[in-house]
Automatic annotation (TrEMBL):
Organism: Maribacter arcticus
Protein known as: Alkaline phosphatase D
Phylogenetic placement of the source organism: Bacteria, Pseudomonadati, Bacteroidota, Flavobacteriia, Flavobacteriales
Limits of the PhoD-like phosphatase metallophosphatase domain: 49-246
Length: 319
């Protein structure tokens, strides 16, 4: 699966990666010749406030033979989710979050003098200026500031949406930063990385839909900012799927591309509601790629499994 001539930039991403399970996908990821690899969260499964244990898992991942090859050839960026953050379904209440952040930044090979070392939360951005165009990757932290979710005691779902206006996913400091990122962006494409799904909101697990006012705020910001080519990447769910919706003021659909998981998938998946779904759900191990063509302002989205098999694809023009 080599890069075709019309592809100017390849972004590969994935989430939900256990160090104690075989990972058969790194060679396939390498074969897509990505310009960047984006971790979407749950990069290891630690669930701990013991920083030595967390560090040992990150070290184990870094020692994976095929992943080492990716590190040498490709820039690595990304975010975390609850299991590498350290607390299942955790948020602002996790007492070891500051220490965990430093271990995460070590894993991502962030320099010791980077401003990210002093910042609360792992949100960041990276702009790629290429000969034919530019891409801004905006990485969100949906853990550090996220307030309590509401357990669902009435149905068989795990959680239910908070009352409208109650709680936050990003916290005001991060919201201000995100508004600046989008309002001031001159990039041809703006990729927003969220560890949890933004559009799919009826499954009863973690999602932006549990904070409906925050989901509405994000959609309004994306539209009002006039930032070009906005795309959302998400993980967490152990399934991969495409979701999309049309937002007032935008001349293209907002796509939320979920890619999960790298080492273990929801093999028993029998279906769940998602009013925004396009195509079929993939519930085997997979990763995602986005192939950008600047001249036609087109993106090819692919869900890829073992041996480079394309399990699902989507094409979208951003003219």
């Amino acid at each position: 699966m080599n890069k075709v001539e019309s592809t100017d930039f390849v972004l590969a991403f994935g989430s939900c990666n256990r160090t104690d399970l075989p990972n058969l996908l790194w060679d396939d990821i390498l074969n897509t010749k990505p310009n960047v690899w984006v971790w979407g969260g749950d990069n290891v499964y630690a669930d701990t406030d013991d920083m030595e244990a967390l560090r040992a898992m990150y070290t184990m991942q870094n020692e994976n033979k095929e992943y080492k090859k990716l590190i040498k050839k490709t820039e690595i960026i990304g975010t975390w989710d609850d299991h590498d953050y350290g607390l299942n379904d955790g948020g602002v209440e996790f007492e070891a979050k500051a220490e965990s952040q430093q271990e995460f930044l070590n894993f991502m090979n962030v320099s010791t003098d980077s401003p990210l070392r002093e910042q609360e939360g792992v949100y960041s951005s990276k702009k790629y200026d290429l000969e034919k165009g530019s891409i801004n990757i905006i990485v969100l932290d949906t853990r550090y500031f996220r307030t309590a979710i509401t357990l669902d005691t009435e149905t068989d779902k795990r959680v239910k949406p908070n009352e409208y206006g109650m709680g936050t996913v990003l916290g005001e400091i991060q919201w201000t930063w995100l508004e600046k990122q989008l309002n001031q962006s001159n990039a041809d494409f703006n990729i927003i990385v969220s560890s949890v799904q933004v559009l799919s909101n009826e499954h009863g697990f973690e999602a932006w839909g549990n904070f409906p006012h925050e989901a509405d705020r994000l959609e309004k910001l994306i539209s009002s900012s006039k930032a070009e080519g906005v795309i959302i990447l998400s993980g967490d769910r152990h399934i991969s799927e495409f979701s999309q919706t049309q937002i007032d003021g935008m001349n293209y659909p907002l796509i939320d591309f979920t890619s999960s998981g790298l080492t273990h998938a929801y093999k028993g998946f029998t279906g769940e509601p998602n009013p925004y779904r396009v195509g079929d759900v993939v519930f085997t191990e997979s990763f995602g790629t986005l192939e950008f063509d600047f001249s036609s302002k087109k993106v090819d989205f692919k869900i890829i499994g073992n041996n480079g098999v394309v399990l699902q694809k989507l094409e979208q023009s951003y003219q």
